[in-house]
Amino acid sequence: MKNDDLRLFFALGCPPELAEAIATWRSHLHLPGRPVATANLHLTLAFLGQLPRARVAELQGLGGVVHAPVFDLHLDRLGRHRNGLLYLAPSHTPEALLELVEQLNTSLSSAAIQLESRPFRAHLSLLRHCPTQPIDANPSFDWPVTRFSLFASEQNTRGTHYRPLHTWPLLCDEQDGGFSAD
Ligand code: ATP
Ligand code: MG
């Protein structure tokens, strides 16, 4: 990675209280593996990889054209990839999350930014190199999603750290053009 490059991704940063609740629940599972740091819990929307630092302003513009509504995410499924990554996921992916990802992808493609070709699968990584998946963990976490961010993934002495570079609010119901009678 060149000195003036940043490792960038758009994601939903897990609110601190929810992150603490998930980390506490995770610790009670007593699973072997490398836990993702509580402060790093997130759900990736679009991974950009290495890009020159000078492109951050342009990315801020591209994130700013996204106009997607707030939504509730219910994390109620525990899954494990073949590579040992244990993750939380919604058993039903909200339409608004898919819309947010689609708008981001469209905006980024307009600037010819190369994106992951695999289909989007909403997940929040919990533990790496985990050899087993408990069958009776029954997670249930509610996440009111109100914003998304552009992060730089950086290495420091304590490992990987995600630095938020910019955060955008999602649209509240009133801003969404919706009308609710009392
Ligand atoms: P580390 O790799 O240091 O153990 P990490 O995987 O959390 O930690 P990054 O590799 O910088 O940190 O990744 C940041 C986010 O982007 C993570 O959610 C990761 O799963 C995702 N990501 C990384 N590489 C890719 C990729 N090639 N395609 C899609 N998403 C990716
Ligand atoms: Mg990685």
TrEMBL record:
<feature type="active site" description="Proton acceptor">
    <location>
        <position position="123"/>
    </location>
</feature>
<comment type="similarity">
    <text>Belongs to the 2H phosphoesterase superfamily. ThpR family.</text>
</comment>
<feature type="short sequence motif" description="HXTX 1">
    <location>
        <begin position="42"/>
        <end position="45"/>
    </location>
</feature>
<protein>
    <recommendedName>
        <fullName>RNA 2',3'-cyclic phosphodiesterase</fullName>
        <ecNumber>3.1.4.58</ecNumber>
    </recommendedName>
</protein>
<dbReference type="Pfam" id="PF02834">
    <property type="entry name" value="LigT_PEase"/>
</dbReference>
<dbReference type="InterPro" id="IPR004175">
    <property type="entry name" value="RNA_CPDase"/>
</dbReference>
<feature type="domain" description="Phosphoesterase HXTX">
    <location>
        <begin position="12"/>
        <end position="80"/>
    </location>
</feature>
<comment type="function">
    <text>Hydrolyzes RNA 2',3'-cyclic phosphodiester to an RNA 2'-phosphomonoester.</text>
</comment>
<dbReference type="InterPro" id="IPR014051">
    <property type="entry name" value="Phosphoesterase_HXTX"/>
</dbReference>
<keyword id="KW-0378">Hydrolase</keyword>
<feature type="active site" description="Proton donor">
    <location>
        <position position="42"/>
    </location>
</feature>
<dbReference type="InterPro" id="IPR009097">
    <property type="entry name" value="Cyclic_Pdiesterase"/>
</dbReference>
